Amino acid sequence: MNARPPALLLRQWAVYTALLPLAATVLLAYIGTVGWSVWISFTGSRTLPTGSFVGLAQYVRLFDTERWIISLHNVVIFGVLFIAACLVIGFLLAAFIDQKVAGEGALRTIFLYPYAMSFVATGLVWQWMLNPELGLQSTMRGLGWEGFTFDWIVSQDKAIYAIVIAAVWQASGLVMALMLAGLRGIDDSLWKAARIDGIPRWRVYLSIVLPMLWPAIATAFVLLAVGVVKVYDVVVAMTQGGPGTASEVPAKFIMDHLFTRANIGLASAASTVLLLTVLALLAPYLYARSRAARREAAR
């Protein structure tokens, strides 16, 4: 075997050297800090980190905390409604635009634009719109609908649903873009054959198109699910977790205990629970992708 030319070896070592800062950042700033947080969750740390190992005591205390249980309950409600609504609305928008409607480019931009906004801006806009004294309720009553009531944002039972509305408004455009890319990859001959056979359009979407869109649906689901786990900005901007703890979510629980209540041990335990949740969501997706890649390589 011939030895590699010195110039080629030098070029390869230059590439590896250029990657060292990135590798150090990943190892120290990401993996290192994650490992440190997990370790802190097994200690009795309060205001400052300590090395006093307490085992699973922080996790026991975490799941004995009513506020944490409420936050889990809220994030489950938020997650189910948010993901389902985004997938349905995103698909309907994509199917609408796929009909080659006039002004398609403008419509794509309009539907996708909310996703370019930060969740803080979205939360502030919807906080004003849903404010009973300033927003939709006040406007409708000013138009003569005196009995109109829409005070979800200040209701103990409905505040979390107000947050769902704002989040769905922002994220549906992303799902639309993913679904539209999948729809544009479907051969026009499929639609021609369906028309010749007299198959209703809705049946074609349900039985043929949706299964073909499975990769786009899976990608959208994973992105939305990760967004559910880390939802924070829109909650703080709209309700601050209130009224009371009616719209409390895990990420806000963590931030409050980390910075306000100075309990980094409990906050680290909650962070570790969220980390495991994200890994549980990503693992099946990554496994399915690896299996698909292996099948393609074996052909």
Automatic annotation (TrEMBL):
Pfam families: BPD_transp_1 (PF00528)
Record's bilayer topology term: Multi-pass membrane protein
TM regions (residue ranges): 12-39, 75-97, 109-129, 159-183, 204-229, 264-287
Keywords for the protein's UniProt record, in alphabetical order: Cell membrane, Membrane, Transmembrane, Transmembrane helix, Transport
Keyword Transport: yes
Superkingdom to which the source organism belongs: Bacteria
Main subcellular localisation: membrane
Residues annotated as domain ABC transmembrane type-1: 72-285
Compartment(s) where it occurs, according to its Swiss-Prot or TrEMBL record: Cell membrane
Nucleotide-binding among keywords: no
Protein family per UniProt: Belongs to the binding-protein-dependent transport system permease family.
Descriptive protein name: Sugar ABC transporter permease
Organism: Caldimonas mangrovi
